[in-house]
Amino acid sequence: MKAAKHTVVSLDYTLKNNAGQVMDSSEGQEPLVYLHGVGFLIPGLEQEIEGMEKGQAKSVTVQPEHAYGLRRDDLLYVVPKSGFQGEEEMVVGMQVELDTENGPALAYIEKIDGDNVTLDLNHPLAGEVLTFDIKISDVREASADEIDHGHVHGPHGHHHH
Ligand code: ZN
Questions:
Q1: Is the CATH number 3.60.140.10 carried by domain 73-120?
Q2: Class of domain 7-68+126-149
Q3: Residue 148 to residue 29: CA distance in whole angstroms
Q4: Per-residue pLDDT tens over the stretch 110-146
Q5: Which residue, of 89, 91, 140, 147, is most buried by count of CB atoms within 10 Å of its CB?
């Protein structure tokens, strides 16, 4: 069976960034099991998996536009350090959680300059050309319930109601 909309795909993968560093991998763990064709994966990767069958492997390069987007300067914010709890412990590269109009968001500390902190709300993989080494370990039909819920049920599937 080929991976197509509303099939359940089991995927082994290793994700590398521009610099060839491994950012994420299923190696040594269960494969990622997901409902194909509903936007669970980044678009550039889902597109490449479309039509693949069990046992097939390939290396996929995805441009930022089809992954986590380009880095945006308007997602850098300068805020006073005193607005944070535990401000003494703040260091560049640290992740902080913010309350925004659209709910909680994660940001990285880009720069600390006196009492000013520059926060970066870009996705950590924004602007990166990503390489995925993938192998399809299974493809099956999704059940009607899975399609209805938009996620996978059963072993290795996440389920919450
Ligand atoms: Zn469900």
A1: no
A2: alpha beta
A3: 28
A4: 999 999 999 999 998 999 999 999 999 999 999 999 9
A5: 147
